[in-house]
Write a structure and sequence with these properties.
Length: 156
Amino acid sequence: MSRRFIARRSPIHGTGVFATAPIKKGEEIIQYRGTLMTHAEADAMYGDGGETGHTFLFTLNEDYIVDANRKGNTARWINHSCAPNCRAVIEESANGDRRKDKVIIEAIRPIKPGQELTYDYGITLDVPHTARLKKLWRCLCGAPNCTGTLLKSKRA
């Protein structure tokens, strides 16, 4: 099977992932891979994550995080957008083993070759969203509906 995407320099931020072939709406594109760790292990290694404005950590479930800093794949380079063409879906293990849950990136609309793959990171922090943090987590997607930050409100 030929690759349907490639990682290269992005106009949004750093490295991005771009379609090299048409991708259909609803199509699974890639699993977000990395080292599985607990939330406590992630906090011990990286702190609360609020101070960097950059992360390859993906919350898998209440118990585990996928750390794409270690053994990560191309999915870690997919950038955030306020008008995404993909979404991250948590696929729960059939046998209920939370360690076997997966993060799958799938298309939410048709994607043409050359288009950058993006999804809404939906980052929530357990600290107040100050002006400094919003600037640190600044969104550069350029979408007409851009919120200016990757941070989401903690209110449901």
